[in-house]
Amino acid sequence: MITEPSVQPDVVRFAADRAQRYIDAGLWKGLSLATCFDSWAGAYGPRRAVIDADGELTYSRLASRVRATAAGFAERGIEPGDRVVVHLPNTVGFVVVLFALFECGAVPVLTLPAHRTREIVHLAALSEATAYVTVDVDGGFDYRDLAREVMSSVPSISTVVIDGSPAEFTALDEVRSAERTFDRVDSREVAVLLVSGGTTGLPKLIPRTHDDYEYNARASAEVCALEADDVYLGVLPAAHNFPLACPGILGALGAGATVVLTRDPSPDHTFGLIEKHGVTVTALVPALTQLWCEATEWEVADLSTLRLLQVGGAKLSSEVAKLVYPSLGCTLQQVFGMAEGLLNYTRLDDPEDLLITTQGRPLSDFDEVRVVDETGHDVASGETGELLTRGPYTINGYYRAAEHNRTAFTSDGFYRSGDQVRRLDSGHLIVTGRLKDVIVRGGENVAADALEDLLLTHPNVSRVAVVGVPDRDLGESVCAVVAPRGTPPGLPELRSFLINAGTARSALPDRIEIRSSFPMTAVGKVDKKTLIAEIGSRS
Ligand code: OOB
Question: For the chain, which end, N or C, has fewer CB atoms within 10 Å of the first or last residue's CB respectively?
Answer without folding.
Answer: N
